[in-house]
Automatic annotation (TrEMBL):
One Pfam family linked to the record: MFS_1
UniProt name for this protein: MFS transporter
Segments crossing the lipid bilayer: 20-40, 46-67, 79-99, 105-126, 174-193, 214-238, 250-271, 278-295, 301-324, 336-359, 365-386
Topology of this chain in the membrane: Multi-pass membrane protein
Superkingdom classification of source: Bacteria
Domain Major facilitator superfamily (MFS) profile: residue ranges: 213-412
Primary location: membrane
Keyword Transmembrane helix (UniProt): yes
One example GO MF annotation: transmembrane transporter activity
Length: 412
């Protein structure tokens, strides 16, 4: 590992909470695609599979920010453990209902309960921010966490789809639940690196979402999440139509691998320009990268196209976290990060649901029109909200001014 990354782990406890965060985030890439694979295996209904995946994502979108808001006030340990227990009970109910062929409404009730899953990525990034706020190490830490996210997306689908197709349909979601339990309870046992909670009286001004800049980020990532959700579902169906359903996990892993490589390199770089410009370029690159998916006709070409498409993901996400630091008060940082995850979750819900219906109606290849349109929407929202991103939250103006001054000196 390059020296800037090694330097992150000089502080005591960083290796342990990072490892716990890795395990706890595996369900992020395993649960949704695992449910899609499980339901399609048991019923053959991609519409139902996509709708259930969407229900999980929408529930997480509604509940996740509230959980993170409680975490900011009361601390990670006191909030994450009970929230995770609810998620685990709901996951057990979903697997049982699917196995015993209970009515569809029971599947949706349990899927909604899974949405209480905490945003482990936000919890880990909050720990890094508490350690390295105001130093160059924070950029490296966010880059490292983006790489960890993508490693989860490389191995998660392979494990989840592979187990559900080779062992039994419920195997993928079952293992995802086990990873969540171990990760959360290991993380919350580590008190020394837990960020200091902020009591209620320091949370004036309502939700972090009142920030105009955060609103732009969240709205854009609804469209971005639609890309991710639809690509997952369509890729499984595309591989299934060609008689190689299990290969979908490898194809999706290459999508994540592209992002992983880009994130690792991005973390080694230092930038002098305004972060909102890099962010908008990243969103545009993600949108353009969806166009080739409409033209591919076989799995090898699809894998290559998705690897290239993945190169823009991690840099955009890393820059997003830097922008959140500028647009959200410190006492609401975990909530602010979770709102972006919420935007992604809403998008994943829309993407997986719409893609499922398009596949049922017109086939898998037509389904790639969903991420292409979503990318165009993301660019449009980003351009319309760009001015808001240039105005940081109260008390954060110096950061953006510093970026602007450095940019002017660089251009001069």
């Amino acid at each position: 590992m390059p020296s800037p990354y090694r330097a992150l782990f000089a502080e005591p406890g960083t290796k342990s909470f990072s490892a716990a965060g890795f395990l706890g985030r595996m369900p992020l890439s395993m649960m949704g695609i695992g449910v899609v694979t499980m339901i399609s295996q048991l019923t053959g209904r991609y519409g139902l599979a996509g709708a259930l995946s969407a229900t999980i994502a929408l529930s997480a979108a509604a509940v996740g920010p509230q959980i993170s808001r409680l975490v900011d006030r009361h601390g990670q340990r006191r909030v994450l453990r009970p929230a995770t227990l609810v998620t685990l009970l709901a996951a057990a109910g979903l697997l049982l209902a699917a196995h015993l062929e209970w009515p569809d409404w029971t599947l949706f009730v349990c899927a909604a309960g899974i949405g209480t899953v905490p945003s482990l990525g936000a919890m880990i990034r909050a720990r890094w921010a508490a350690l390295y706020r105001g130093t160059p190490k924070l950029h490296t830490a966010y880059s490292f966490e983006s790489v960890v996210d993508e490693v989860c997306f490389i191995f998660g689908p392979i494990i989840s789809i592979g187990l559900s197709t080779a062992w039994f349909p419920e195997a993928g979601p079952l293992l995802a639940a086990c990873f969540l339990a171990v990760g959360v309870f290991w993380l919350t046992a580590q008190r020394a690196t837990e960020p200091e909670p902020h009591p209620r009286e320091r949370h004036g001004g309502g939700s972090a979402l009142r920030s105009a800049g955060l609103q732009v980020l969240v709205a854009t990532f609804v469209a971005t999440g639609t890309i991710f959700g639809s690509v997952d579902v369509v890729t499984v169906a595309f591989a299934d139509e060609r008689g190689h359903k299990a290969a979908a996990s490898v194809v999706l892993a290459l999508y994540a691998a592209g992002s992983c490589v880009a994130g690792a390199v991005f973390g080694l770089l230092r930038f002098s320009g305004a972060p909102e410009r890099r962010w908008l370029l990243g969103v545009g690159a993600m949108a353009v990268s969806m166009i080739p998916l409409l033209l591919v006709g076989n799995l090898p070409l699809l894998a290559a196209a998705l690897f290239v498409a993945g190169l823009s993901i991690a840099p955009t996400m890393i820059t997003t976290m830097s922008l959140i630091e500028e647009h959200v008060p410190r006492a609401k940082l975990t909530e602010g990060m979770t709102w972006v995850s919420t935007g992604l979750a809403v998008g994943v819900a829309l993407g997986s649901s719409v893609a499922g219906w398009v596949i049922d109606a017109a086939g898998a290849r037509a389904g790639y029109g969903v991420p292409a349109v979503s990318g165009a929407v993301a660019v449009a929202v980003g351009f319309l909200g760009y001015r808001r991103l240039r105005r940081p939250a109260a008390g954060r103006g110096g950061t953006v001014e510093h970026h602007s001054e450095r940019e002017e000196r660089h251009l001069a």
